[in-house]
Structures are given as C-alpha cells and as structure tokens.
Amino acid sequence: MVNVAGELDIATAAHTDAIFTAATSGTHPEVVIDLRQVTFLDCAGVRPLAAAARRVHEAGGSLTLLAGHPMVVKVLRFNNLIPDGAASAGGAVPARHLPAYPLAVHRCDHRCRALAEER
Question: How many CB atoms are closer than 10 A to CB 24?
C-alpha cells in the first residue's frame, strides 16, 4: 500500500512517480494507492497515477485507488482513473485523521482495460 498525503502537483510529481514506479514494478503487482489524505491534485499529479495504472495493467496485476476529497475524486474521474460508476464506501473506512468525505474506490485488475491508455 502506498499512502499519499498533501498535494500531488508539478512540485511533487517526480518524487511521486519514483515511488509509484517502485511500488508497481515486477510481475502481477497488487497495489493499493491511498489518496484519502490528498488535498490537491492537478494534471501533473495525475500523470504518475496514469503511468502506474498502465504499468500494473501491462504486468497483469491489480491497482486499487482510494480517494475521498471531492476535488481529488473529480480530477480522477475527469482523467478516467475512477469511472463515474466507481464503488463508494460512503466513508465506511474513516480514520480519525482522515476527512469525513465519502470514499471512492476503483479497482482495476488485469481483466480491465487500462483507462489511462485512452489518453
């Protein structure tokens, strides 16, 4: 599991990409990226996520994205990393330090088409 907090933007994209690359390398990686503590996400921050989704798809693994902040979910949906019909846990996994937003969960495994490849 990779926990991400704060802002995912141009200032953090290279560092984030290195972490996601390490987490998604190998064959059949099973990766969970927890974005529930991310407060800002822009197009530069989405690139490492899209690249991670592509790597996991190509390696026959699975990637689960957890997002809570409405703006983060909106950006992920806009970039087709979380589809409109993604499961919502309704905040069922809140921790004390996490905001009480509904939780959006998207799991993509080797059977699904990598949504990021469409871009």
Answer: 24
Strand order across the 104-108 sheet: 2-8, 30-41, 62-67, 104-108, 87-88
Q: What is the pLDDT of residue 86?
A: 58
Tokens of 83: 């589809």
Task: Tell me the pLDDT of the chain averaged across its residues.
Answer: 78
Say yes or no to pLDDT of 54 above 60: yes
What is the pLDDT at residue 91? Answer: 41
| H helices present in 1-119, as ranges | 13-23, 43-58, 70-78
Residue 36 CA to residue 66 CA, distance in Å, equals 6
What mean pLDDT is predicted for residues 57-86? 85
User: How far apart, in whole angstroms, are the C-alpha atoms of residue 106 and residue 104?
Assistant: 7
C-alpha of 88 from chain center: 14
